[in-house]
Every structure is written in structure tokens, then in C-alpha cells.
Design brief:
This protein is about 70% helix and about 10% strand. It is an alpha/beta fold. A hairpin with a 5-residue loop joins strand 4 and strand 5. Helix 11 runs antiparallel to helix 18, helix 11 runs antiparallel to helix 19 and helix 14 crosses helix 17. The longest helix has about 70 residues. The radius of gyration is 61 Å and the shape is elongated. The two termini are about 25 Å apart.
């Protein structure tokens, strides 16, 4: 199709604008920034493919076009309403791509037909499956690509190779693994049941033994408690007896001593209460150091840095896992690579590295062998012919040598030059003599004027009518007057001086002419008028001389030719012997080189194939080395992370494994403890204040203690209790004596008799009470422990009884087996479906490869022709089957890979490929307009001209729009268009479309 007209009713900055682009010549559109160039480009694409989602508001326009069958149509895009009509105004609502272009979408159109500067950056688009299906395959290839995409999507829904995959097969495999684990667990139930029964019997025996021990201990403990009941009577008796002894020790005591003591006790009680209250506060909290809360203080900064790097660590772990998988895949591919190489045809060994091969040496040897074979072949074909001598071969008598004739020619040329120069000088002399002599010139009047001005300035200075400035002015005027007078003198005498120089030169030329004429062999010319006859004479002599020379040369060459032919035939025979010997040496060297480098034996004509196949092996091995290097780098990173983590974990002294999760846990723990330490700091400060207050109370207590010691010394008491006891005993001596008698009587009554009393009193005094109390405490603890142990045993016995009852009625094993069989059946069905999809996809891939192999060479051939046209035959294009490897070859057969192209050359290569694909699509389905947007940015002026000449020719049969924002490009295009007699030139300015030339 070709666009006939564009109607931009309301689109961007355009309002009711129209344009009828040319259908048979290149359309060059120039617009500066903000002129509407980008809007025009977008309008053409929107007319072809419709507005994008949500981008239809306020946009209206239509476009007329003619299809390749001659039918006219017009497409309308009025906001949401979109349709197209034929010449009879029959309306159609289908999308143009779906109706005519087999679903070609906007994305694919912009990859091939709409080419911008950023698109000329490589050939990766050739590996795009959608591009290949529509441009490298036959018609309908897009259906294969779509079917293949649908198969890939269906496979992805069933299974994912990722360990974290959640597809159906992945989920069923995980469920099957869980079911098998459950069956393994249930298989141990029978053994567990018998173990529980044995454990039940052991438990019953332990409970019975423990119950008997508790009964014995309780009986013995009751007897001890009855004995120890007498201890309260003994304590009372000891207290009273002590009070009685103390009362007898006090002999002198002050009258107000008790009041002093009571006051002192009250003060000490207040201090004691304050100390107890304060001590409770001190005991309630123990100060801690930061090292106790955060033992790893020295590594906090390193922990923070490592926590920031956790994402990188986890990604590195994932990279290591992916790299190991990739290395395993590489090993399989490398071993099987040998079967795909015709010259090897055997499995490759991972243990035997690919030997380094000097291919330059191989090419040299193969070239040498090929050259030797060619030399022998051509040697046989070029056996020299030897002629026979016939006739008289005597040479005529020589009259004049070539050097003599060259001297004559030189003198003739010099005479001619001298005569022409004499004539020119004479003409110039005559012209000067005809001019009038000058006596007065403007320079003279200027000189007089400035000299008068200088005189006036001097007069004004001396008459004091002006200052020093007048003197400076007079000096300047005098200098200018003198300068102008010198110019006048030069102008007046210029004519005479020139005539003198010309006359002198004429005399020199006459002397030179006479000298040459004297030595010239023949009549020499004296004037220019005699030159014509002189030329004819010289031409006649020149012809005679060269005829004589030619005759002499022919006879001499004939004899020399026969002699050389005879010598050549002899040399030819000697050469054949040498060539055979060289060929044998070259063949042996070639075979030795193949054996030395462990290469298969083959002819030198297979060197390129041999190197190509070896290169595949070498590249595959290099890929493995790169994988090893990358694995080493990843391992080094992981070791660095592990080393940092180990240092942190060692500092914390916590049982963490060395992994990112542990560092995250330690970081969280560090954050929690930091917050805890902030709270404890306040408590530490409060505790310190309490300690200071306690120190003050201790001082007050010490003061009271000194006063107390004074009172204690009066009654010879050791402490406050003894003081109080002695004072109280002294005051109540008679009452204490009565209590002593009463206590002894009570103890006798508890004992039951005088004899038992004496025995009990003696036992209490000799310390048997402590043994009883220790034994009582020990028995009490044992009884408590045994009681608790008995409760635990009884609870355990109940749990075992319940578990035995549960196992006796459990049917989980049957359910687990049914669940496993169901999962296996469903998994088998899905795996069969997945394998069917995989084989179908492989068949489609092979069919796609067959389609591509028939179409791609035609496109590349066309691209090659385009590149030659754009570069004036300088470069030829070559591209691999997968479209990834591209190189060019110059006219001298020099190969240039993509890496060493200049930016302009690369742009020309990729432009040629895209244009070839676009034209191939037109031949296959339907031609579409090609849009080129500022593709000349990296072109020099020469390359622009060459490419424009090519586009001008291509634009005569293919509709092409070339947009640019550079005036220089437009000027070059106009010059090329004028040269080619074609091209349409459009200028855009603020939404206005103007045709500026053709």
C-alpha cells in the first residue's frame, strides 16, 4: 500500500492540515524542534494501527491509501470511532493489520518499517521470534510462532524448573514427597505400640516402689516431729536461764540510761527503717554494664554494614546455585558437541583440554600446499612456445640517438617559450607607452593640505593661541604630508620604472634566444609568426625519427623474443622439477601439522571448516572456563561474606549458623538489646543515687553506734540485744527467777517424768536436736520430691494409656496409601501432557527452522545489494543463520567484524537489513510505507550523499518518508534530488506543512 494523502483534522499542534505525499519518489520532511515532526511520525503510525490505550482524546484524522491491487481506501480515526472505507464508501470495521497484514502489530512495524537513530544499534532484533516468523519465514509463519508461544505458555502452566515453582506438576511432586514422608512415619506405629506396652509395665512398677518409700518416710518423719516438739520448751528455758544469768551480771547502771537507750533506739529504728526501705530499692535492681547487655559491642559497625549487604549476599548465593546448574548443563553439551562436528564425529572428553592451535601456521601450510598444487597445475598449462628464426634480421644503420633528439626537442620548446615571452613583453611596453604621463595626483594635494595644517599648528603654538596639543597635531600632520608626498612621487615615476624593467627583460630574452638558436641544428625561428612553419618542420622530423626507432626496436625485439623463448622453455622444465619437490614438502608439512595439533586428517581445502569446528569446541571450552572463573569469583564473594559473618557470630558467642538469616536475627537481637540498654541506663543512674543516699544513712548509723557502744560499756554488753537483755533482766530479776521455775516444771511435764526430763535435757544440750532437725528437713524434701515424681509418673502413665488406646483404633495408614496412589495417578497424567507439549514444540521449532532457511538468504542477498549501493560497492554483507554474527568484506577482501565498524558504517549495515526485510514483507504480503527518522546523525557528508542517492532510487518503487531536523541534510537531499531528477521536499513549521522544492 502507498499513502495518497494525510488529513490531520485535530492532532497535536495540527489543525485541519493536509499533505499529499509522493508515491513515486522519496519524501524528505525537515522540521526543527517543536515544529511537529514527531507528531507527524506518530500520526502515520496511529492511522495504520490505531490510537494507543487511553490516547484517543481530542484526536481526529483520516488517511487515504492505495493498495498494491489498485484499490483505493481511506481510514478514519475520530477519537474512539475507527473504520475504513473503499472507493464506493462501503464501511469496514476490522483493523487493517488483522484484515490484510496477518496480524502485523505496531511493535513489529516499528522494529522494521519505522527506523530511528536508536534502532540502528545492532542486529539483536533478528533473534526476535516474532520478527523472524514474519520476515524470514514463508507466509503463515506467524501462525507457527503463535502456536509455539501458546505451547510454551501451556508448558509453563504445568511445570517450572525453579525450586520455588508453584505449577501443577511442581505442587503434585511436593505433595507426593509429603505423602511418602507420612507413610514412612506411619510404618513405625506397630513398633511404637509394643514399646508403649513395655513402658506401661515399667511405669506401674516404679509407681508401686515409690509409694512404699513414701509411706516409710512419712512414718519416720512423724516420729521426728514429735521429738522436736520439745524444742520450744527448751528454747524458753534457755532464754529465761540466760535472762537470769544476765541480771546477775549488772552491778551499776545510770538512772536515765534506759531513756538514753530508748531515744537512741528510736533514732536507729528510723535510720534502720530508712535503710531497709532504701535497701529494698537497691536490691530490686542490680546495675549492669553495657557489655553484659551487648557482649558484641566491638562488631556493631561491621554488623550494620553486613546487614546492609544481606541482599547482595542472598543474590550471590542464588547466583552460585544458578551458575552450578549452568555448569552442569555445559558439561553435557560439551561432551555431545563432538557428534555434531562432521570432521570429529565422536564424543569430546572433559579431561582432555582443547589444544591451542596455531591457525596462522595452518593457513600458511594449507595455503602453501594449495599454492603448490595450483603452481603445478598452471605450470603444466603454461608450457612456453618457441618460435623459429626466419628472414633477414639485420638492423639498419643508426643515424641519430634518442638523447640527441630529446636535446633538440628541449631547445625547440625553449625557443618557443622565449618567443612567446618576448611578444608578451613587447605588447605590455606598447600598452604603457600609449598611456598619458601623470604630473598631478590626489596624493600631492593631500600632502600639501597636511603640510599647511602642520605649519598652522606650529604657528598657533608659537603665537600661544594653542597649547602643546597643537604641536603634537602639527607633527602628525607633517608626518602624513610627507607620507602622501612619497606616494605621489611613486605614482608619477611608476610608468618609467616599469618600462625600464620590461626593456631589461626583453634584452635578456633576446640574448637567450640567440644563444639557443646558435646551437639549434637547423633554421631557428626569430619571431612568433615563424612558429607555425617551425612546428610543421619539427613534426616532420619527429615522425621520421620515431619511425626509424620503431623499425630498429621491432627487429631487436624479434631476436630477443626468440632467445627468451628458448631460455623460458628451459627454465620451465627446471621450474617443474622444483615445484614437484616443493609440493611434496608442503603436503608432508600439512599432514605433520594436523598430527601435531591432534586434528583429524583432512585435505587443505577443508581448513576453514576444520577451524570453524575447532573454534566451536574452543569456544565451548572457553565458556566452561568462564563459568569456572565466575564460580571462583562468586565463591570468593561468598567466602568474604562468610568470613565477615563468622567474625560477628564468634563475637556474639551465640549458636548461629553462618548464613544471611543468622545475621538478620543477630541484627534484630542487637537492635532489641540496644533499646534494652537505653532503658537500663536510667535505672543505673537511679541506683547510683540510691547508693549515695545509703552512704549518708550509714554515716548517721555509725554516729548512733558510737553512742550505743558507750552505754554498752557501762553494762559490759557486747551488743544491743545483750544490753537490752541485761537491763531488762536487772529490772525484772525476781520475775525471771519465778519464770525459770515454771519453765522447768513445764518441761518435766512434757517429758513425762524426772528421768525422761534429764535425758531430754541432756540430749538437747549435747546437740542431738540439730541432727534431728537435719534429718527432718531432709526427709521433708525427699517426701516433697517423691510426691512430685509420683504425680509425674501417674500423669505419664495416663498419657501412655491414652496413646495405646489411640493407636489401637487408628486407620491413618490406609488413608495415606490411598492419597499417595491418587497423587501418583494425577502426576503421571500431567507428565504425559507436559511431554506431549514438549515434543510438539520441538516439531514446531524444526518446522520453523525449515521455513527460515528458505527465506533468510533472499533477504540477506537483498540487504547486501542495498549496502553495496549505499557504499558505492565498497562493502559486501555477510550474516550468520541465527542473525547474531554479522561482518562486512571490503573490495580488497578484508573482513571487518561488527566491533571495529565506524558508527556510520554500522548504521548503513543495519539500515540495509531493515530495508531488505521491509521489501521482503511487501513481496510476501503487501508493501507498507517505510518511515526513517533522523538516521543521518552519525553520517559524514559523503556517506549522506551516497545513502540519499540510494534512497532516491529506492523511493521510485517503494514509498519512503525521510524525516530530519538538520538543514544541512535537507540541502544535501535537494542537491541529490536535483542530480537524480526526483524527490519531494516538505518543511514543517509550528503545525504548518509546506512544500519547499522538488
Amino acid at each position: 500500500m502507498k499513502i495518497t494523502d494525510l488529513q490531520l483534522q485535530q492532532y497535536g499542534i495540527y489543525r485541519n492540515a493536509s499533505w499529499q505525499p509522493s508515491q513515486t519518489s522519496l519524501n524528505i520532511v525537515m522540521g526543527e524542534n517543536e515544529s511537529g515532526k514527531t507528531t507527524m511520525l506518530r500520526f502515520i503510525r496511529d492511522m495504520l494501527f490505531g490510537y494507543g490505550r487511553g490516547k484517543w482524546q481530542g484526536r481526529k484524522g483520516n488517511m487515504g491509501f492505495v493498495r498494491s491491487d489498485g484499490q483505493f481506501y481511506r481510514v478514519y480515526r475520530n477519537e474512539k470511532d475507527q473504520w475504513f472505507e473503499n472507493a464506493n464508501h462501503v464501511k469496514f470495521t476490522e483493523d487493517l493489520p488483522a484484515a490484510w497484514w496477518h496480524g502485523l502489530n505496531r511493535s513489529i512495524y516499528e522494529k522494521i518499517f519505522a527506523v530511528g537513530l536508536e534502532d540502528l544499534q545492532g542486529a539483536n532484533f533478528l533473534a526476535n521470534d516474532n520478527v523472524r516468523s514474519r520476515f524470514f519465514m514463508l507466509q503463515g509463519g506467524d501462525k507457527l510462532a503463535n502456536a509455539k508461544a501458546e505451547l510454551e505458555e501451556a508448558k509453563a502452566k504445568l511445570f517450572s524448573a525453579s525450586p520455588q515453582g508453584k505449577r501443577k506438576i511442581n505442587q503434585l511432586a511436593a505433595d507426593l514427597e509429603e505423602a511418602e514422608k507420612e507413610l514412612d512415619s506411619l510404618s513405625n506405629q506397630e513398633k511404637e505400640f509394643s514399646d508403649l506396652q513395655r513402658k506401661q509395665e515399667d511405669m506401674k512398677k516404679q509407681i508401686s516402689d515409690l509409694q512404699k518409700k513414701l509411706d516409710r518416710d512419712n512414718e519416720e518423719n512423724d516420729l521426728l516431729e514429735k521429738r522436736l516438739g520439745a524444742w520450744k520448751y527448751y528454747q524458753e528455758a534457755v532464754r529465761v536461764k540466760r535472762q537470769l544469768d544476765l541480771s546477775s551480771q549488772v552491778t551499776m547502771f545510770p538512772t536515765n540510761g534506759k531513756e538514753q537507750w530508748n531515744q537512741l533506739m528510736n533514732r536507729m529504728k528510723v535510720i534502720h527503717d530508712q535503710k531497709e526501705s532504701l535497701q529494698k530499692k537497691l536490691d530490686a535492681y542490680k546495675p549492669v554494664k553495657k557489655e553484659e547487655i551487648i557482649p558484641w559491642m566491638g562488631v556493631e559497625n561491621e554488623l550494620e554494614k553486613l546487614y546492609v549487604d544481606l541482599g547482595q549476599w542472598r543474590q550471590t548465593l542464588q547466583d552460585a546455585e544458578d551458575m552450578e546448574k549452568e555448569k552442569a548443563d555445559w558439561r553435557i553439551d560439551f561432551v555431545n558437541l563432538g557428534y555434531s562436528l562432521p570432521l570429529w564425529d565422536h564424543a569430546l572428553s572433559l579431561d582432555k583440554p582443547c589444544a591451542s592451535v596455531d591457525w596462522e601456521e595452518g593457513r600458511r601450510l594449507a595455503g602453501s600446499l594449495g599454492v603448490r598444487n595450483n603452481e603445478l597445475h598452471f605450470w603444466e598449462q603454461r608450457e612456453p612456445e618457441v618460435e623459429k628464426l626466419t628472414g633477414d634480421m639485420a638492423l639498419p644503420e643508426k643515424t641519430e640517438s634518442e638523447s640527441d633528439w630529446q636535446k633538440v626537442e628541449s631547445m625547440a620548446s625553449e625557443l618557443e617559450q622565449v618567443l612567446h615571452e618576448e611578444a608578451d613583453i613587447q605588447s605590455e611596453i606598447d600598452s604603457l607607452r600609449s598611456t598619458e604621463d601623470k604630473k598631478y595626483t590626489p596624493w600631492l594635494w593631500l600632502s600639501l593640505a597636511f603640510l599647511l595644517a602642520a605649519a598652522g599648528g606650529i604657528g598657533a603654538f608659537y603665537t600661544a593661541s594653542a597649547g602643546v596639543a597643537a604641536m603634537y597635531g602639527a607633527a602628525g600632520a607633517a608626518a602624513l604630508g610627507i607620507l602622501f608626498f612619497l606616494l605621489h612621487s611613486h605614482t608619477v615615476h611608476k610608468k618609467g620604472n616599469t618600462l625600464e624593467k620590461l626593456a631589461s627583460r626583453k634584452e635578456e630574452l633576446e640574448a637567450q634566444r640567440k644563444k639557443v638558436s646558435h646551437n639549434f641544428p637547423g633554421q631557428a625561428p626569430k619571431t612568433v609568426d615563424e612558429l607555425r612553419a617551425f612546428h610543421n618542420l619539427m613534426q616532420e622530423k619527429r615522425s621520421d625519427f620515431y619511425q626509424d626507432q620503431a623499425k630498429r626496436q621491432a627487429v631487436s625485439w624479434k631476436k630477443e623474443t626468440i632467445r627468451k623463448q628458448q631460455q623460458q622453455h628451459k627454465n620451465w622444465e627446471e621450474e617443474g622439477s622444483i615445484l614437484r619437490e616443493k609440493r611434496d614438502k608442503a603436503e608432508k608439512a600439512w599432514n605433520d601439522w594436523l598430527a601435531k595439533n591432534s586434528l583429524p586428517q583432512t585435505g587443505e581445502e577443508n581448513l576453514s571448516a576444520l577451524q570453524e569446528q575447532w573454534q566451536k569446541i574452543y569456544s565451548a571450552e572457553g565458556k566452561g572456563k568462564i563459568l569456572d572463573l565466575r564460580l571462583e569469583q562468586i565463591d570468593a564473594k561468598l567466602d568474604a561474606f562468610a568470613e565477615r559473618a563468622q567474625a560477628i557470630i564468634s563475637a556474639t558467642k551465640l549458636p548461629y549458623a553462618v548464613n544471611p538469616d543468622s545475621i538478620a536475627d543477630i541484627y534484630e537481637e542487637n537492635h532489641r538489646r540496644s533499646l534494652e540498654w537505653e532503658g537500663l541506663q536510667e535505672k543505673n543512674n537511679q541506683h547510683e543515687a540510691y547508693e549515695k543516699e545509703m552512704a549518708k544513712l550509714d554515716d548517721s548509723w555509725a554516729s548512733c553506734k558510737r553512742e550505743m557502744d558507750t552505754l554498752l560499756n557501762l553494762v559490759h554488753a557486747k551488743n544491743a540485744e545483750e544490753f537490752a537483755e541485761k537491763v531488762n533482766a536487772h529490772e525484772h530479776h525476781d520475775q525471771i527467777a519465778k519464770e525459770w521455775e515454771r519453765v522447768k516444771q513445764d518441761l518435766r511435764m512434757y517429758a513425762g517424768g524426772e528421768e525422761e526430763f534429764e535425758s531430754l535435757w541432756h540430749a538437747l544440750e549435747t546437740g542431738q536436736y540439730d541432727e534431728w532437725m537435719d534429718k527432718h528437713n531432709k526427709l521433708t524434701r525427699e517426701i516433697e520430691e517423691d510426691t512430685a515424681k509420683l504425680g509425674d509418673l501417674q500423669r505419664s502413665q495416663g498419657a501412655i494409656d491414652n496413646e495405646i488406646f489411640r493407636l489401637a483404633g487408628d486407620d491413618s495408614m490406609t488413608e495415606a496409601l490411598q492419597k499417595k496412589e491418587k497423587i501418583e495417578a494425577e502426576l503421571k497424567s500431567l507428565l504425559g501432557e507436559w511431554l506431549t507439549l514438549m515434543y510438539t514444540e520441538e516439531l514446531l521449532s524444526r518446522a520453523q527452522a525449515i521455513y527460515e532457511s528458505g527465506r533468510q538468504p533472499e533477504i540477506m542477498k537483498m540487504a547486501n545489494e542495498f549496502l553495496k549501493d549505499m557504499t558505492m560497492g565498497k562493502y559486501a554483507l555477510h550474516i550468520s543463520d541465527n542473525g547474531k554474527d554479522i561482518y562486512i568484506e571490503d573490495s580488497m577482501h578484508g573482513v571487518k567484524t561488527e566491533k571495529i565498524w565506524s558508527s556510520g558504517t554500522g548504521d548503513q549495515v543495519y539500515l540495509a537489513i531493515r530495508l531488505a526485510m521491509a521489501l521482503s514483507f511487501g513481496e510476501q504480503i503487501e508493501p507498507l510505507p517505510i518511515v526513517l527518522d533522523d538516521i543521518f546523525v552519525r553520517f559524514d557528508e559523503k556517506r549522506q550523499r551516497e545513502t540519499l542517492r540510494f534512497l532516491m532510487e529506492l523511493g521510485k518503487k517503494q514509498q519512503i518518508f525521510l524525516f530530519t531536523c538538520h538543514e544541512r541534510t535537507m540541502h544535501i537531499a535537494e542537491e541529490v534530488g536535483y542530480e537524480k531528477g526526483t524527490g519531494e521536499f516538505i518543511h514543517l513549521s509550528a503545525g504548518q506543512i509546506e512544500q519547499v522544492g522538488s
